[in-house]
Amino acid sequence: MNHNHPVFIDNDPQSELVTLNLGPTHPATHGVFQNVLQLDGERIVSGVSTIGYIHRAFEKIAEHRPFYQITPLTDRLNYCSSPINNMGWHMTVEKLLNIKLPKRVDYLRVIIMELSRISDHIICNTIIGQDTGATTTFLYLFQFREHIYEIFEEVCGARLTTNIGRIGGFERDFNEIAFAKINKFLKEFPVALREFENLLSRNRIFIDRTAGVAEVTKETALEYSWTGPLLRATGVDYDVRVSDPYSSYQDFDFEVPVGTSGDIYDRYLVRNEEMWQSVRIIEQALEKIKSEPKGIFHADVPEFYLPPKQEVYNNMEALIYHFKIVMGEIDAPKAEVYHAVEGGNGELGFYLINDGGRTPYRLHFRRPSFVNYQMFASMSEGMLLSDAIINMSSMNIIAGELDA
Amino acid sequence: MEETTLNNNIHVKLTEKFGEKVTAVSEPYGLLTFVTYKDVIINVLSYLKEELKFNFLTDITAVHYPEKDHGIAVVYHLHNMVEKIRIRIKVFTSEQNPTIPTATTVWKGANWMERETYDFFGVKFEDHPDLRRILNMDDLGVHPMLKQYPLEDPNRVDKKDEFFGR
Fold first, then answer.
1. Which of B108, B113, B136 lies at the smallest CB-CB distance from A52?
2. Do B165 and A243 touch (CB under 8 A)?
3. CATH for A148
4. ipTM of the assembly?
5. Which of A18, A268, A347, B61 is most buried by its number of CB atoms within 10 A?
6. Which residue segment(s) compose the domain that A168 sits in?
7. What does the angle CA A191 – CA A195 – CA A200 come to, to the nearest 5 degrees?
8. How many domains does chain B fold into?
9. Pick among A336, A339, A353, A397 to test the B interface (most B CBs inside 10 A)
10. Domain boundaries, position B77
């Protein structure tokens, strides 16, 4: 018997409740989720979420991989902003190994992470527009996600599952084309974002569909361990970048936008404002890089950072390090470490226990989508089905991160 | 430096309140970590939440140590958002019959985290409102994150550890 697929048993002949299987592959839910809903007309009486459709046992696989081979696994958590996951993982290992990065590398990372945040928020906000009937906005802003992917492609060669950077820095320096593309993006994106806001933010239909829908108080949000834009929309100014700065975020001047009522409209506004702040951070980072010594793209840690191929062929030490790193034989302290970064959806945490072997003894991902999503079914009770759909879009649940 | 004094204060307060129930205190990478027991874990969590303002439950998970007597460690990460301190609490429970009281009475958000821990480690959270598997299928029959379950088919000859110097 399958307990995960509850069937609402309804013996009352007078009852007019309908059971609806929303998902697992429903076109309106943007991902593989199943919600078994009991409907009274168009109103949801109760619901049960079933998850795990793309569970790939990453935590188990990670126990059998050397540290550098775990990066491609993190790509596939929140695949809308994989560089944040990659770098979160790199920073966890760097914390374990006590590696201090040069400022220029930190700033380069900040640029990439903020670009990913923008691409993540573009997806969420345009899809809220799409689900409330505004296809124009979706098509309009979505092309900038493509431009961001072109920048990633220039830096690391990949677009979606990036595997960007290495433990200790980047695999190569940003080239001129990458900087040119970032500058072009910074020039064109604000114009499009302004137009996007003009189309939606004061749009009567959009406000009617979103304002006052799925309101959440800050007490409830904290009780359910919400983080990220969802928590900030309820009015709590918690942002890992500020409260626990990593990668030199303390050097930047930016604001943490908060909402008041935690409804869908507030979440939309918070994400929009965060995109503006991300643009600000990238501009500052580009400015700061100019005063840093050129050409530095990784920390000087030969034990942990792969040497250039030319040296591997011609230099004894480099060959030894190369062999040890590739075989996972690096000397990492026996310790446990928790490191959190602000992902697109909230606090993305890595809890790593190392026993001195070549693979982690235990690695746990604290995945914001997983934690945030548990409130969805109980939130939906009493809501119209069409509101529940945009509520799900505004929570920006990414199936890869939900199921790990 | 500042972090250490903060952590010391918390440690002193916890010891005053719970005495010998708070053991093995350490501070890896500035994060206060201690071990407690399952008869007081809910009191410890509520005390931390109500009195010491650790209002936010970041994470619940477990770790399996097959060579220890009490081989399953349930690990809680809490966060004091106002003073920006994190804390880690561990409770060891036996491998044969891993049980621990549920934290859903303290935070509602513990629900799915505990379901995930149950799913992967078989830890039974007593009085949990809805303790079902969450990511794996129901008829899996095992709790796959336990160390005795191999990742791949152990009969494969091309992936033996000794070939890789392990």
1. B136
2. no
3. 1.10.645.10
4. 0.92
5. A268
6. 58-403
7. 150
8. 1
9. A336
10. 2-153
